[in-house]
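I am still getting used to backbone structure tokens and would like to learn alongside you. Would you supply a protein for us yourself, any chain you care to pick? Start from the sequence, derive the backbone structure tokens from it, and show both lines together. Go ahead whenever you are ready, and we will take it from there.
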Amino acid sequence: MPDAHVIRTPTRQNRPLQRFNQFLLRLIGWRVEGGLPDTPRFVAILFPHTSNWDLPIGLICAHAIGLFAAFPYGFMVKDSAFRWPVIGPLIRWWGGIAIDRSARYNAVDQMAEILRQRESLMLAITPEGTRQKAPYLKSGFYYIALKAGVPILPAFLDYRRRLACLGPVLWPTGQVEVDLQTLRAFYAGVVPLYPDQVGEFRFKTAETEH
């Protein structure tokens, strides 16, 4: 648990949308702890992700502290989704970043390159890749951050405490298990909406395949 309880507000603050979401935050009885990162580019991860309610609650919390006002927001989407006349522009407006699965470079390399090129970007990822219980996490978020030379911002929604929390950023070192242990410590004791759907905070290894 980070010891920062004061939210660092972005330059562009007091917008009507932010004030409205601050009202919604009080209405639903949630609070936010942690500070916004001081780095312009990073990979944000939300864990555990067990419910569709994570999205609206997470958006309210993010808008309430001005997260989207401080950083451009992005998430990975396969490029075929952008070909639809109406859906494609909508996904792009929401922050979707096209990933070309037929390209020579894989999705990790593509996103790492995009992060290196952008002046400012928050790439949001749910490590499980599913709301169901997963035996291990997808390691893409870690290697995107490592290859792009950007930190990881861990975040969670604790439904028991009605608490949204942004942790201190972690700069990946390449010592995977050491870095994962730091993240496990941050997420220890977090209670999602459906606790029985939470898997272990680990990556796939030869042992997990059996």
Observations:
- Strands lie at 31-33, 41-46, 73-78, 96-99, 121-125, 152-158, 163-166.
- The helical segments are 16-28, 54-64, 67-70, 87-94, 107-117, 140-148, 176-187.
- The chain has a mean pLDDT of 81.
- Residues 40-204 form one domain.
